[in-house]
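Appendix C reproduces, verbatim, an entry submitted by the partner laboratory led by Prof. M.T., so that reviewers can inspect both the input and the predicted structure.
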Amino acid sequence: MSSKLTKVPEGTGILEVPVQGLEWTRLYVLRLKAGEKVSLGEEEREIGCLLSTGRIEIDGKHILGPRNEIFNSKPWGLYIPPGKEVEISAIDNSELVFATVKSEPNSAEVAVIYPSEIERRVVGTHNWRRYVTQVIDRRVGARHIIMGETVNPPGNWSSYPPHKHDKHNPPYEWKMEEVYLYRLNPPTGFGFQRMYTEEGDMDEVYTVTDNTALPITRGYHPVVSAPGYSLYYLWVLAGEDPVNIPRDDAKHTWVKWAEQIIKEL
């Protein structure tokens, strides 16, 4: 079965994003009005959270935010290991996107990740330049999840050269499933997500719009934004041994090696 694009639910509270075909990952959006509270934590799943907008308090100790927009800022992150629970209180109207991934009990502690602790990298050049921020990984104690954000300027590509991570072949490629949650600025915009395999048994293109999500379980998966519209996507990688080293499509790797020449020109 091919992956299907789904719509992020509307409303408030904890809302599950109905992506299918993922073995490890469940994706949620948490929307709280100022003054509302909720507890997050599971016995056999670890949780990664990124603050999209607003300002929240964790266990009466840590403030995340304020974050007013997602296209030109770094997020606040929260990692909750299996068996731990936190109370989230909304100071302002807030949205938090979180993923739960099956995991085993471990000695990790709850971790709050501040924007000052993470790097927003410029990746690529020319019309495949984009901004990538990796927030949750082994540095904070995560076992089976990597989580971050990518922003494509208008008309630009990312996940380019096309890459994949559907076979376990260290040190060249680590097998991981992935899910993207897309936002557009302005929100009336669109982009295109291609997913294809070397074998040719899959070659699909999806029109992505604001507040949609797509599971990626195999194949190369480049994405492009339409001219005039910035494309943001929150991404979650999960697997037995998650390491963010994908394999590029050999037909297009020359683009990466040409980057330095282009920059010098």
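Residues 10-254 form a domain with the Jelly Rolls fold (CATH 2.60.120.10). Additional entries are available on request from the coordinating office.
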